[in-house]
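[step 3/7] fold_predict: job queued, chain A
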Amino acid sequence: EIFLLRRTKDELSAQLDELLDEMSNRESTMIEIKDHAANVASGGLESEKRFDALKRDLAAKDCEISQRDDKIKKLQWERNNVVRENLELVRRVGALEEQVNHYIDELT
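[step 4/7] structure written:
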């Protein structure tokens, strides 16, 4: 019986050592997981900051594009007005030429 008890004690002691090693390994793994999670969270925060910066840049570019579009529309409007004015001047010059030709015909 003593032999069996010692054997059982040794087996239990070995099992306890194994369990303690396993617990130590698990604790190390948990620490690694927590460290990794902290790094991911930190990286996530950096990514979020970069994303926010990109959103701000995009909004600024959109504003610039909108302003350029407004300038283009204004220039197109001004160009159209100039074209209309030129067409009106061409029409008036044509009418004056007709009058001059008519007067010349009357004088000759």
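[step 5/7] annotate
The chain has a mean pLDDT of 86.
The helical segments are 2-107.
exit 0
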